[in-house]
Amino acid sequence: APDYSALLASARQHPEAESSGVLLTQNAAYQMVLVPINAPQQIAWVGIGFAITDNLATELEQQTHTHVSLVAQSAKHEARLLASTLSPAQRPDFMRQGGHASGKLYRMPMAGNEFVSLSLPLNRTGNGVLSAVLQRSLDDALAGFRMLRWQLFAIFVLSTLVATVAGSVIARRVTQPVKRLAHS
Questions:
Q1: Which of the listed residues 6, 72, 81, 167 has the most CB atoms within 10 Å of its CB?
Q2: pLDDT class for 85, splitting at 50, 70, 90?
Q3: Which residues of 154-184 are buried (b: 16+ CB within 10 A; e: fewer)?
Q4: pLDDT at 119 exceeding the cut of 90
């Protein structure tokens, strides 16, 4: 069962007696909101929440257009991947390389692809930190630049050919009359 004590202590200190946070169990993580029930005095607490799963990561990916991984790191610095849009082949590389380090922007190879990643702490508690890590394939990010580079190269080659042909035509038109004058 999740330990609600930190969430409850935070609610008791809040002016509106509300609290929110992430509760971790051995098998899952939940985003929770704790609110009081008043009749007219407080008689109980209600906790509402949802599980942090790959479905949540997928919804976040649709909004950010980047891969999203949610990582819980305990106070003992043990990290656990809660949810991710990375492929099953990329996930072990991500965790092995410490891709969850908070507040960093870095490049990371995962399953043969290079990614740019940004880790952002979302929720700090006495038990640790929940971080969101946004990852974007470097190949995908640079695809537009590479296409532009090839287009500019093609324009350069084409303009060089046009200039060469135009220069030859102009040169012939100038030299033909001069040759005729020289031969007459």
A1: 72
A2: very high
A3: eeeeeeeeeeeeeeeeeeeeeeeeeeeeeee
A4: no
Is pTM beyond 0.85? Reply is no
pLDDT > 90: what percent of the chain?
2
**CA angle, corner 137, sides to 103 and 97, nearest 5?**
50
Give the pLDDT confidence score for residue 52 in this predicted structure. 87
Structure tokens given for 26: 């051995």
Q: Give the position of tokens 């009081």.
A: 36
Distances (CA, A) of 181 to 171, 175, 177, 184: 16, 10, 6, 5
Place of tokens 């607490």: 45
Q: Which of 18, 10, 28 is nearest to 124 (CA)?
A: 10
Left if phi > 0, otherwise alpha if psi is -120 to 50, otherwise beta: which for 110? Answer: beta
| 88 in Cβ contact with 71 (< 8 Å) | no
Give 143-169 pLDDT, tens digit per residue.
777 788 888 888 888 888 888 888 888
Which helix or strand (DSSP H or E) is residue 131 part of? Answer: strand 128-137
Cα distance between residue 109 and residue 135, in whole Å: 11
